[in-house]
């Protein structure tokens, strides 16, 4: 496995062994298209004992969650979205290679790495010909190499959870307004974005 940059693909069909080997030669990881399948990141890999080719390449399939409802406890249903057959990683009839599936629960208040119990994973029709290794990573500190930089990563995580700041009227932006006028202006802005957030100003016309 080797990468030093990221390519966001525009077509989910690129998550296929016929194409993934080329990402390794380029030194790229894959950032997936929005709202397709349950895969957010693909790290192509090749076993050491084989030469890099369409017939040897496999992948680490990753789903990223920044919602704090996902914690240290494993949610096994998230691994179902990382189904190698469903995302088209291997064509029907092609040699099946082991696949690593990972879930990053970044906003977890607890941190740690865990593994689903094997007998609890139903192989079913999706996994008859494919061996998968599942890993659950909870919290930023589950990535041991970012200890010294965890504050910076926490800032980025918090920023990803924030809505846009058009509703946050600061005194520096409206220094000539008194508090009552500033609050009124904020309420009017929120009413223009009805039902986008739980704040009552976004739902004012629907309140009884």
Provide the descriptors you would attach to this structure in a database record.
single chain; 208 residues; 19% helix; 7 strands; 2 domains; alpha/beta
Task: Describe the model.
This protein has 2 domains: 5-161, no CATH class; 167-206, no CATH class. It has helices at 17-26, 77-80, 150-161, 179-191, and strands spanning 5-8, 28-31, 41-45, 58-65, 99-105, 112-114, 132-138. By secondary structure, it is of the alpha/beta class. Mean pLDDT is 83; it is low at 119-127. The chain has 4 helices and 7 strands; from the N terminus they run βαβββαβββαα. The relative contact order is 0.11. A 7-stranded mixed beta sheet has the order 1-2-3-4-5-7-6. The radius of gyration is 22 Å and the shape is elongated.
């Amino acid at each position: 496995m080797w990468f030093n940059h990221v390519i966001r693909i525009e077509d989910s069909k690129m998550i296929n062994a016929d194409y993934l080997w080329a990402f390794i030669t380029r030194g790229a990881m894959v950032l997936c298209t929005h709202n397709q399948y349950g895969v957010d990141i693909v790290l192509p890999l090749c076993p050491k004992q084989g030469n890099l080719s369409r017939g040897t390449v496999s992948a680490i399939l990753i789903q990223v969650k920044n919602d704090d409802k996902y914690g240290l406890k494993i949610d096994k249903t998230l691994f179902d979205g990382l189904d190698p057959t469903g995302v088209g990683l291997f064509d029907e009839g092609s040699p099946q290679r082991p696949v690593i599936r990972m879930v990053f629960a970044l906003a977890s208040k607890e941190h740690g790495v865990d593994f689903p119990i094997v007998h609890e994973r139903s192989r079913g029709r999706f996994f008859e010909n494919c061996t998968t290794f599942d890993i659950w990573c909870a919290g930023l500190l589950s990535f041991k190499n970012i200890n010294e930089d965890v504050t910076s990563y926490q800032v980025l995580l918090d920023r990803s959870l924030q809505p846009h700041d058009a509703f946050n009227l600061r005194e520096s932006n409206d220094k000539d307004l008194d508090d009552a006028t500033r609050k009124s202006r904020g309420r009017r802005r929120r009413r223009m974005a009805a039902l986008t957030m739980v704040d009552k100003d976004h739902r004012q016309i629907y309140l009884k």
